[in-house]
């Protein structure tokens, strides 16, 4: 039952004060809390075990506590335990309380006493008491394995009982319902008719009883009961096979035995299923690192495997480990990002040639830098200022690109490590921390590098690329034609300039003195800018490839080992520690497996004896108590 396997149980249900606790008391031969209103507020599992000694042993078990008690104190002990579980008020709880009664001569029975049902909450009871109680009752009587012991007071009309209504909901034909009629002494009239006509579908039959009244001892109560059914003018007419506590005990024992025999094959199967499931689960639990050697092996294994994976996906473009996961096809994704970056650079520096601004900036700058000197020297500052403006425009893009790239790499590395660390959670946090530190360092280096690259373009201008002179010369070849159009006002004001497309030139007609120089400068900047952009993209790509190689092939392994094994880190010992929750789970699994194995043996034993003996009733419940 601890492992959630339903065993055949006898569940006692009945309306409030119908006499449930009294019936249990009579069966167990001990006193239980009795009274008006609700006094059973939690499920009470009562396990009766016949034993040889004359000494009565009583033991209360709840919430993993075991309390030895005595006949005199058991009532109080139950009340204290109930208050501990369900509070001091009138509230109720699902958490059961187990009372083990070892007493000479008691029937070997396990029964569950439940809170009685009431439609109307009495003073101090929660409003939804009916729902609460009927939920508990339903939980216990729904399983097909449960035998329902329906306690009915002789003083009431049976069909009006709530407990009858409830048990009929789960057991229509009544095949697993037995009725006990209490208080026969108080309402003898018509009792014979009530139990013989069976208006309420009780499949397992009725037993009429008279429980202990007031301060009677158990023995007195049995004598009085026997006398009552022997000599009472009406009650004596009821067949002796359906009256008295001893008859009830005998019936219950038989029913329980038959029910156990019927359920055994299913129980065996459930034990096996549960056992297999737990063994599987245990074998899939994270590895426990028992020695320094184990820990070293694990560390080598993880770092080696993670490095291989990262090498494949980040450097070599082999993604067979992640065939479906597009994110992990890293070389392709990084190429995408680089491509986007270069597109952004180009589009950010593209200009509008039809707005009437063509050459205006250049002319303004030339005017401002005019000095006393010959007019056909192009001032170098003008070129540099124009270049700086262009660099300024795109300066953030390389940084944004690098930040995005590193957060992607961090993501990928995190995924890979998490995958390889799944079996070693005790190494996880330190490993992840080490790589995060490393990645943060690499990112910082990249940022510095990128800033330097941008700075360089800002203050220096050089290329050894022969394309520069070639392209400049080919753009300049258009100058004379352009000047002709500008000087001749009758020409159209749109000019088709190779490398720019349609250019608006009308506004340049008044400024013709500066146009030639301005055009020259613009062509130099334009040609040079293409080289700058290409150089930026190339350098960033080279830097990235270099950083990744360094990280994967060298830094990562060192960083992780330093983080895990460094002297101030607790070294290898810490790797041996398992998290308490994991250790707890492992222990629970082991305990549960042990218990299930034992249960399996016990049940197998019973099954053997059944098949050997043929007649199993008596053997069965003896074995059950041993079990
Ligand atoms: P529960 O609420 O169903 O557990 O009912 P209890 O066992 O606490 O009984 C309620 C009351 O009915 C108590 O005062 C008992 O003494 C009384 N009672 C139970 N059975 C009998 C019986 O057979 N005869 C008489 N006269 N009273 C009984
Ligand atoms: Mg009770």
Structure description:
The chain is of the alpha/beta class. The chain has three domains: 9-243, 3-Layer(aba) Sandwich (Rossmann fold), CATH 3.40.50.300; 270-288 and 580-613; 292-576, Four Helix Bundle (Hemerythrin (Met), subunit A) (Up-down Bundle), CATH 1.20.120. It is 57% helix and 9% strand. The chain contains 19 helices and eleven strands. The protein has helices at residues 20-28, 74-86, 129-141, 162-170, 191-197, 218-231, 245-284, 292-316, 330-349, 360-368, 380-394, 396-421, 425-459, 467-476, 479-487, 512-565, 571-576, 580-613, 617-626; strands at 10-14, 44-50, 57-62, 65-69, 97-103, 109-113, 147-153, 177-182, 206-208, 494-497, 501-504. The strands form two sheets. Strands 4-3-5-2-6-1-7-8-9 form a nine-stranded mixed β-sheet, with helices on both faces. The protein has a two-stranded antiparallel sheet with strand order 10-11. Helix 4 links the parallel strand 7 and strand 8. Helix 15 packs across helix 16. The radius of gyration is 46 Å and the shape is elongated. The model is unreliable at 616-627 (pLDDT under 50). Magnesium ion binds at residues 20-21, 39-40.
